[in-house]
Amino acid sequence: MTAYDIIMKKRRGGELSEAEINQITNGYVSGDIPDYQMSAFLMAVCFNGMTSAETTALTMAMVYSGDTYSPSAELGDICIDKHSTGGIGDKITLITAPICAACGIFVPKMSGRGLGHTGGTIDKLESIPGFRTSLSHSEFISVIKKAGFAVSGQTGTLVPADKKIYALRNATATVDSIPLICSSIMSKKLATGADGIVLDVKVGDGAFMKNYDDALALAEEMIAVGKLAGRKCTAVLTDMDKPLGKAVGNAVEVIEAIEALKGSCPDDIYEISVTLSAEMLYLAGKGTPEQCKALAEDALSSGKALEAFEKMIQLQGGNPDVINDYSLFGTPLYTREVISECDGYISAISCEKTGLLSLELGAGRKTKEASIDPTAGIVFSKSVGDKINCGDVLGKLVTSAECDLDEAERRFKGLFSYRENAPEKKSPVLKIIRS
Ligand code: URA
């Protein structure tokens, strides 16, 4: 078959064979298939979707476009990975990975950088002075052996097909397709080689998946692909209609994660961190879901998770003193405290707009090449459901960029909606789907 025939078959809604999917994927990676044909193919997938068998074939073709790893073979024990589909204020990896490490399982975490209004775990960790995220494979394994987990950037040889296809999707309005998102995420997870994967599928205004049904469909598809590839997978749907926790940025989020590991954090962070950790421990065979939840809670309250985090920072070249001295993260040049001009209960905090404001303050990157300001961000003093009086502090904006702080303050105030009565409290964990 020619590339033209494959595109036509998908355009007409046909089901492609594994050989056809390999042909178009490998041909694009090698340069034999040009951008314009791959773009047409991706658009046909956006319109006509893919079966689970097709999505699995695409995922596996992408996996084998680069290096693959088997960390459990190297470490001699089960390895469990965790992935978030991306949100605002999402520092959960910094809490779940040390919890699981403290409970005796290995977590090989390869993370990406942030682009646009959602932050990346790698950028957050790099706000720790000296912290290195470019680890050789042997260093990565050695840190996991000693600390129970390591967090490394994705190397250029991990799923090169995804890098090339993702860049094309970004430029051709073909990002928001469930089979394409699923193959992009799962190819990286499968190539990294963990035995089990817990997927935090974010749903809401600040997430890729804006509504529950789409998030559920993505979660089910990722589990189906994981299963067909022989991995144990669990998906947890979590709320992203408001920022997670109170800090959005890089250093400010690491500080919030350290506070959580010290036992002090907002309820949403606690509930999501414990739920995801418990699911990771459950996949590792550490007991029933209830026993795993108790293990996760104990790792947090005993301080063992904090110890694992400190060890990982040290092994990856970071200054572990940041745990007790937050001034070591550096001081932003400008801080603007924002005062409320309203009375009432906070009924909503616009999530996507929070991410965009944090980007404007310098905490994110607008283009892949841009650098970020590690000290920039937003720290809320109040959360959804809190009672607020005129004159109360709503939060603060921090930045070292020469941006218009008056305009930033105006945008910050605009994030909040109010009502007269206390809104009903909702759990941020919407659904757990075990394979
Ligand atoms: N994250 C990814 O890695 N890929 C996508 O397509 C979307 C989110």
Provide structural commentary:
The protein is an alpha/beta fold. It folds into three domains: 3-49, Transferase, Pyrimidine Nucleoside Phosphorylase, Chain C (Transferase, Pyrimidine Nucleoside Phosphorylase, Chain A, domain 3, Up-down Bundle); 71-158 and 189-324, Pyrimidine Nucleoside Phosphorylase, Chain A, domain 2 (3-Layer(aba) Sandwich), CATH 3.40.1030.10; 331-419, Aldehyde Oxidoreductase, domain 3, CATH 3.90.1170. The protein has 17 helices and 13 strands. The strands form four sheets. It has a four-stranded mixed beta sheet, with helices on both faces. Strands 6-9-11-7 form a four-stranded antiparallel beta sheet. β4, α11 (212-228) and β5 (232-239) form a beta-alpha-beta unit. α13 (267-283) crosses α14 (289-301). The longest helix is centred in the middle third of the chain and has 17 residues, at 212-228. It starts with a helix and ends with a strand. The model has no long low-confidence stretch (mean pLDDT 96). It binds uracil.
Q: How would the blueprint of this fold be written?
A:
Layout lengths: L2 H9 L6 H13 L4 H14 L3 H12 L7 H5 L4 E5 L8 H10 L4 E5 L9 H5 L11 H11 L1 E5 L6 H12 L6 H15 L3 E8 L8 H17 L3 E8 L7 E3 L1 H11 L5 H17 L5 H13 L2 H12 L18 E6 L4 E6 L1 H11 L15 E4 L6 E2 L4 E7 L5 H9 L2 E4 L9 E6 L1
Parallel strand pairs: 1-4, 2-3, 4-5
Antiparallel strand pairs: 5-13, 6-9, 7-11, 8-10, 8-12, 9-11
Helix pairs in contact: 1-3, 2-4, 2-9, 4-10, 4-11, 6-13, 6-15, 8-15, 10-11, 13-14
Bound molecules: uracil.
The backbone outline, from C-alpha atoms, is: globular
Element order: H for helix, E for strand: HHHHHEHEHHEHHEHEEHHHHEEHEEEHEE
Instruction: Tally the helices.
Output: 17
- Could you estimate the helical fraction of the residues in percent? 40-55%
So what's the CATH class of the largest domain? Alpha Beta
| Binned strand content | 15-25%
Radius of gyration using CA atoms only: 22 Å
Give the CATH H-level superfamily of the largest domain: Nucleoside phosphorylase/phosphoribosyltransferase catalytic domain
User: pLDDT below 50 for ≥5 consecutive residues: which ranges?
Assistant: none
Hetero ligands: uracil
**Number of beta strands:** 13
Corresponding CATH architecture of the largest domain: 3-Layer(aba) Sandwich
How many separate domains? 3
Q: CA-to-CA gap between the ends?
A: 36 Å
The CATH topology label of the largest domain is Pyrimidine Nucleoside Phosphorylase, Chain A, domain 2
Largest sheet: 4 strands, mixed
Strand order of the largest sheet: 1-4-5-13
Specify the structural class: alpha/beta
Write down the overall mean pLDDT.
96
